[in-house]
Design a protein that fits this description.
Layout (H helix, E strand, L loop, with lengths): L8 E8 L2 E8 L8 E5 L2 E2 L8 E6 L2 E10 L2 E4 L9 E4 L12 E10 L15 E5 L24 E6 L15 E6 L3 H7 L8 E4 L6 E4 L5 E4 L2 E8 L12 E5 L4 H10 L1
Antiparallel strand pairs: 1-2, 3-14, 4-12, 5-6, 5-8, 6-7, 7-10, 8-9, 9-10, 11-12, 11-15, 13-17, 15-16, 16-17
């Protein structure tokens, strides 16, 4: 896989009762598919995205994710770590919100069709089973799966803590949100000739507004359901006019997701 040039790091202080844990947000060596951030987003209303998950390897923010039920999180297959620290109920990564929950992923199931080649990110989804179920609260809630595919023009939004386009503060401390719309398959095919399949859905394409580095595996939410996962798109720079972001098309995978959860 391709690696973007350069190196960016950031130290986070994560408050906990009685102690502080130092976390390092590192986006070094991320693949082309990982290179997804929110450009021109705004701070989400605190805890308005209670399904949003942050996946950490050691102290490094690896990817986003989506809570599906008390024990299962969905993320992108290219987020390939073996085990994660899963942070839920977060808004600020450095300030104590008093809503946070921390879990450890026990094992994962990657879609069997995922190949992870540079030419195709088809079937880019992966389920993580948490070692201990979460406590459902106002700040930690599952997101329903889309059972029908979204039409072009459907209004949606994305969220994440990935890098922004603000050079003075590229690593957001607080969860960022961005509104965007589904684009037609023809528009997406024109932007990425020969690389788009029916298992992908595209959104955005407005100059300067996109998902990019650090948001992989995060949710594309349309009309209150999970329509997509941040998968891949343009890089260097992200947010190019007429170039939409590419998301795993969740409506194609509902039966597989439910089967894995039922059998494990």
């Amino acid at each position: 896989m391709e690696d973007p040039e350069g190196r960016e790091t950031r130290t986070w202080r994560w408050p906990t009762t009685g102690s502080s844990i130092f976390l390092f947000l590192c986006v070094t060596g991320l693949s082309h598919a990982d290179a997804l951030k929110i450009f021109n987003g705004t701070e989400c209303v605190p805890h308005s995205q209670p399904w949003q998950v942050g996946l950490f390897e050691g102290g490094n923010l690896r990817c986003g994710g989506v809570l599906l039920d008390r024990r299962w999180v969905l993320t992108a297959a290219h987020c390939s770590g073996s085990r994660y620290w899963v942070r839920l109920g977060e808004h600020s990564l450095s300030q104590l919100d008093w809503t946070e929950q921390l879990r450890r992923s026990a094992f994962s199931v990657t879609h069997p069709g995922y190949q992870g080649s540079l030419q195709s990110y088809d079937h880019d989804l992966r389920l993580l089973r948490l070692g201990t179920p979460v406590l459902l609260t106002g700040s930690v809630q599952p997101l329903p799966l889309a059972t029908t595919c979204a039409a072009a023009g459907t209004e949606c939004h994305i969220s994440g803590w990935g890098i922004t386009n603000r050079p003075w503060s590229p690593f957001p401390d607080r969860l960022q949100c961005l509104n965007l719309s589904i684009v037609s398959s023809a528009t997406c095919q024109a932007a990425f000739p020969g690389r788009i399949t029916d298992n992908m859905v595209c959104a955005g394409g407005i100059a300067g507004e996109d998902a990019c580095q650090g948001d992989s595996g995060g949710p594309l939410v349309c009309r209150g359901v999970l329509q997509g996962l941040v998968s891949w798109g343009s890089v260097d720079p992200c947010g190019q006019k007429g170039v939409p972001g590419v998301y795993t098309n969740i409506c194609k995978y509902v039966d597989w997701i439910r089967m894995v959860i039922r059998n494990n």
